[in-house]
Design the sequence.
């Protein structure tokens, strides 16, 4: 038995070596030799691929005319040496591609000579002088090892592309002086990062594994796939198992999903080209392709939904998703991906890039279908969800509802928050990250102190704050151990609705929120359809608390239907901690019992009215960010906060209504006043009933059951009997 086992092991290893050796004709990573043949043909034919090649070649020619610059590392993110090394890896990769396509040795020689310099420099480098001691694993070329891994992902591809041009001595100099030391540093000398289930671990395993394929180092590939001890407790496959839900949602949110996407898709392509028997693109029911598609779905008007530590300017044209969409089309031939590629406006010089370019030249794109989806969170998809609701009424609307998990260290304390988008703009907003990325003059380009003191805090989001403290008391470890429960997600032609709850954000307090994006139907053909958002937030506790519900809005305040007590000569600070210390209190009001309304005008030229059902005891606070911000790190954005004090149980009932148009160029304004005349909420057993009365004697009623999925729901309201199947129904009431 032992002899048999040994023979099987030896045969298995031999097969792996054979698989890699068969693919050892270079290039063999993202671009293979078959791609090169087709790409060389394409650059001789007019089209987008040829134009991309000519543009890239011109750019490379201009850069290689300059002296090779490999500075001694000294600057943090955004500084000169940091950016120079980033430019170098991109230049080497681009020059390597141009070498393969043009077959001009000067491009390979330039890459070779730059690698010689790195091979001489790297073994002499200590840890980076700008490293954050005790907080992140440092690099040598860069201030953190993450950037080192990104550098190696690109540089390993550049080396792969020029390998056919090198002598044995040249290969030995580069591999022994550069690639062996950097792989050792990123793997066995940095085990915590290498084995960590995190985007840093993803980049590192991809870098080491890709370098292993290029150099024929099977051990590196196996460690990259299964962890340093090859037990499967770490490594690239573990990353695929743990970081994505079955639908392809990445735990840290879309901003970091697009960043982590590049090593996932790039290394997967390298695995496919070298060891197709692994069927990596079929792993976990096609998790890599699911992740690419989900990344697209988590965008609006070409920008990603900015949850957690997100930079709000990042969108679908980011190079990581360009590569992802290109590979997805190359693998599937799905013409919907071509629509996204067309919007991205970038062709990449790979075999898959050639397929995209030729398909676009032949006008094969079909509209990509954005949908309303509840993306389950966690590796099992059952740790809450990120819910996207969409309608298309008078300009596309999207609502993002976030009963999702914490999102590791980049997550915010914002359970059950929401954002709203309309007519191409953000209406109800999320601050995202407090950071000036790669602006070294602003805190070294790193996350600002205010990212912790403001951006992560609950009051910086559109969800309930209890007693001016943040969810989980601002403790990430506690947050990562708890998540909301998605009660239901449902939709029909007019309504997309979802409900979720969490009882662990605050001790002894249950938070339950139901949100619906509705296209109000109308039997009057002369009346335009009306999009609205309905928001019912129920808070329950056995003890009395203060409950705050902020709405961070984008636009200029136009009017309220209640009086304001406005601060005219000085601004008090709203609170002392947990984000409240950063809010100026600009005005305060206590609306009467009944309907309160706040209207603002967004830069998209549309008015938005937030209608609330008030109890006469609650107050509304109007705030602006900027207090206790001595270096002007924060944006001066506005919010209003509905506050209920000394309460055990309370239900916030709100409605958001887009309406009208303001056109300063043509000097007209229409429908600047809300159509909502009354709002009512009743609870009939487990059924919530929201009645909405509009002008012209138009009435609607939304009924939903968030407690159980009864086959038939029956209730009486205002003397009439109603029933519905499933979770909800929207009724148009005749009076």
Sequence:
């Amino acid at each position: 038995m032992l002899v048999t086992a040994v023979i099987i092991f030896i045969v298995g290893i031999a097969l792996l070596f054979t698989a890699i050796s068969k693919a050892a004709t270079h290039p063999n990573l993202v671009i293979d030799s078959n791609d090169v043949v087709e790409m060389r043909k394409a650059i001789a034919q007019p089209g987008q691929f040829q134009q991309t090649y000519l543009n890239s070649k011109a750019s490379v020619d201009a850069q290689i005319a300059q002296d090779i610059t490999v500075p001694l590392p000294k600057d943090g993110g955004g500084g000169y040496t940091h950016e120079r090394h980033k430019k170098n890896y991109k230049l080497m990769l681009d020059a390597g591609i141009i070498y393969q396509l043009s077959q001009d040795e000067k491009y390979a020689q330039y890459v070779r000579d730059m690698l010689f310099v790195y091979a001489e420099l790297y073994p002499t480098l200590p840890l980076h002088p700008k490293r954050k001691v005790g907080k992140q694993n440092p690099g040598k070329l860069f201030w953190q090892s993450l950037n080192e891994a990104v550098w190696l992902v690109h540089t390993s591809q550049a080396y792969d592309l020029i390998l056919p041009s090198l002598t044995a001595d040249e290969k030995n100099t580069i591999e022994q002086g550069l690639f062996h030391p950097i792989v050792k540093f990123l793997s066995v000398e940095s085990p915590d990062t290498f084995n960590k289930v995190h985007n840093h671990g993803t980049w590192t395993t991809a870098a080491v594994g890709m370098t292993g394929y290029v150099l024929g180092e099977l051990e590196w590939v196996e460690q990259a796939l299964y962890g340093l001890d090859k037990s499967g407790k770490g490594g690239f496959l573990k990353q695929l198992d743990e970081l994505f839900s079955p639908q392809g949602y990445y735990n840290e949110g879309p901003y970091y999903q697009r960043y982590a996407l590049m090593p996932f898709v790039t290394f997967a392509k390298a695995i496919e080209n070298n060891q197709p028997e692994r069927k990596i693109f079929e792993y976990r029911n096609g998790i890599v392709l699911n992740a690419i598609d989900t990344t697209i779905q988590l965008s609006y008007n070409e920008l990603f939904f900015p949850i957690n530590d997100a930079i709000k300017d990042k969108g679908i044209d980011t190079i990581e998703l360009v590569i992802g969409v290109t590979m997805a089309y190359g693998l599937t031939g799905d013409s919907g991906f071509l629509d996204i590629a067309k919007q991205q406006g970038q062709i990449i010089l790979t075999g898959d890039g050639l397929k995209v370019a030729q398909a676009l030249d032949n006008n094969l794109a079909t509209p990509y279908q954005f949908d309303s989806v509840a993306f389950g969170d966690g590796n099992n998809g059952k740790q809450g969800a990120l819910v996207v609701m969409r309608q298309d009424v008078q300009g596309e609307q999207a609502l993002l509802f976030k009963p999702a998990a914490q999102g590791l260290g980049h997550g915010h304390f914002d359970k059950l928050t929401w954002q709203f988008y309309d007519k191409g703009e953000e209406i109800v907003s999320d601050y995202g990250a407090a950071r000036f990325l790669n602006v070294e003059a602003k805190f070294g380009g790193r996350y600002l102190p205010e990212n912790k003191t403001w951006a992560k805090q609950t009051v910086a989001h559109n969800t309930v704050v209890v007693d001016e403290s943040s969810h989980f008391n601002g403790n990430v470890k506690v947050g990562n151990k708890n998540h909301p429960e998605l009660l239901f997600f449902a939709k029909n032609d007019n309504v997309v609705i979802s409900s979720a709850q969490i009882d662990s954000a605050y001790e002894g307090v249950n938070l339950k929120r139901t949100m619906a994006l509705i296209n109000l139907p109308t039997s009057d053909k002369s009346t335009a359809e009306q999009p609205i958002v309905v928001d019912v937030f129920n808070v329950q506790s056995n003890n009395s608390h203060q409950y705050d519900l902020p709405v961070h809005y984008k636009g200029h305040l136009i009017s309220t239907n209640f009086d304001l007590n406005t601060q005219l000569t000085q601004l008090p600070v709203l609170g002392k901690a947990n984000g409240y210390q950063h809010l100026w209190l600009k005005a305060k009001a206590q609306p009467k019992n009944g309907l309160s309304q706040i209207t603002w005008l967004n830069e998209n030229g549309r008015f938005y009215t937030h209608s609330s059902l008030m109890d006469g005891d609650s107050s509304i606070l109007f705030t602006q960010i900027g207090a206790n911000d001595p270096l002007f790190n924060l944006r001066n954005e506005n919010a209003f906060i509905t506050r209920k004090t000394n309460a055990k149980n309370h239900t916030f009932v709100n409605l958001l209504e887009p309406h009208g148009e303001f056109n300063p160029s043509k000097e007209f304004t229409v429908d600047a006043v809300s159509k909502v005349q009354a709002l009512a909420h009743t609870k009939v057993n487990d059924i919530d009933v929201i009645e909405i009365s509009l002008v012209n004697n138009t009435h609607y009623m939304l009924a939903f059951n968030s407690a159980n999925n009864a086959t038939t729901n029956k209730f009486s309201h205002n003397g009439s009997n109603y029933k519905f199947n499933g979770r909800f129904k929207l009724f148009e009431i005749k009076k």
Observations:
- The chain has 18 helices and 29 strands.
- The longest strand covers residues 495-506.
- The radius of gyration is 28 Å.
